[in-house]
Amino acid sequence: MSNNLTKQAIAEFIGTFTLVFVGAAAVASAQGVLVAAFAHGLVIVGIAYTLGHISGAHLNPAVTLGLLVGRHISPPKAAIYWITQFAAAIVAALILSIILGSNANLGETTGSLTAGSIGSAMLFEAIFTFFLVSAVYQCAVFGKAGNLAGLAIGLTLTFSILAGGTYTGASLNPARTLGPALVAGHLDYLIPYLVAIFAGGAIAGALHQYGIGDVKT
Q1: First vs last Cα of the chain: how many Å apart?
Q2: Which of 145, 161, 185, 210 could form a disulfide with 149 if both were Cys (CB 3.0 to 4.6 A apart)?
């Protein structure tokens, strides 16, 4: 692995760890969807401007997949990012469980639809992930938001959680779902969530790269 890729992987690990640790802690605090939404959104903004120049601050395997579909990242680099993101999420959840206790709420990405209406939960997750990866494409990849790209992407995550947090936990991020679910041992909803989130990211990547494209005005 090249020196630059090593640095990028470290940045992705730090960024994803921060997102999952802060986001899960905010949900575990049981202060409501408003706190959870702004905790996740503000983390994205902070990490985008802190580490974005190193790794692009994907922080999310679905974002990486969306960029892979549009050929903005190579398959080997995407694989390194995925391994790093998932590992960071698991470590973040493990440390949170040590701090809060093994039986504590670990801020899993679940909501009222998760147990009884998994199909509806999947559709929510796919749509909200589509919104997020769309923001990444137009604001960051195509540069339409300039220096405000990090803010725009963070706000997209914020409004998605405000709208969907009660229903599904509004994960939009396979790593954010996997870490707490794995450590808590609650895996029944894991595969449907991962399928839906990855699908939303892939569809957004295909649409914006090959459909809408980088429109010049």
Answers
A1: 40
A2: 145
